[in-house]
Amino acid sequence: MVSRLEKYKNVDVVVKAFNQIPNRKLVIIGDGSERKKLERLAGKNIKFLGYRTDTVVNEYYQNCRLFIASAHDEDFGITPIEAMAAGKPVLALRSGGFLETITEDTGEFYDENTPESLLKGLIKILEKTFDSHTIREYATTFSTENFKEKMKAFIDSIMK
């Protein structure tokens, strides 16, 4: 998980869920006003790394099993796209911009902002098989180059 550690990001829900499954490791990269509270709440299977450089974050993306995105009504959410660019599936709260960026081929949703719902989603995503090449290919649809091409095509179409 890569996130600002603020209340609206719902990291506490993820921590509470992973506290129920001590055999599963959770790594959280990021910092914020909720960090100390979250660290006190977390079991031994949860590791907080704080702020890390893009290079280190990318290494974690490359080596993780899956990525978790828990913010409610996130506008877009770049971190799930970054994880997908590394070929990793995403488990996300069914909300906001995640609905526009995550598909059944690239991840799984959980429906409610509760540890129980997250755990159900975790079981579903771990039972599925994902193709890392397909996930990486899909992530390219959000690239800067693709955005520029689509924007140019849109502008050209309305200028005619």
Any overview of this molecule?
The chain has helices at 11-19, 35-41, 54-63, 78-85, 98-101, 115-127, 132-139, 144-159; strands spanning 26-29, 46-50, 67-69, 90-93, 107-110. It is of the alpha/beta class and 160 residues long. The chain has a single domain, classed as Glycogen Phosphorylase B (Rossmann fold, 3-Layer(aba) Sandwich). The protein starts with 10 loop residues before the first helix and ends with a helix.
Could you name the key traits of this structure?
two-stranded parallel sheet, Rossmann fold, three-stranded parallel β-sheet, 8 helices, 160 residues, alpha/beta
Q: What is the rounded Rg? A: 17 Å
- The poorly predicted ranges are none
Structural class: alpha/beta
* Number of beta strands: 5
Tally of distinct domains: 1
CATH class: Alpha Beta
What's the arrangement of strands in the largest beta sheet? 3-4-5
Task: Determine the fraction of residues in helical runs and give it as a percent range.
Answer: 40-55%
Could you please say which CATH topology applies here?
Answer: Rossmann fold
**CATH homologous superfamily annotation:** Glycogen Phosphorylase B
> What can be said about the biggest beta sheet?
3 strands, parallel
Oligomer: single chain
The average pLDDT score comes to 96
Concise synopsis of the structure shown:
With 160 residues, this protein is an alpha/beta fold. It has helices at residues 11-19, 35-41, 54-63, 78-85, 98-101, 115-127, 132-139, 144-159; strands at residues 26-29, 46-50, 67-69, 90-93, 107-110.
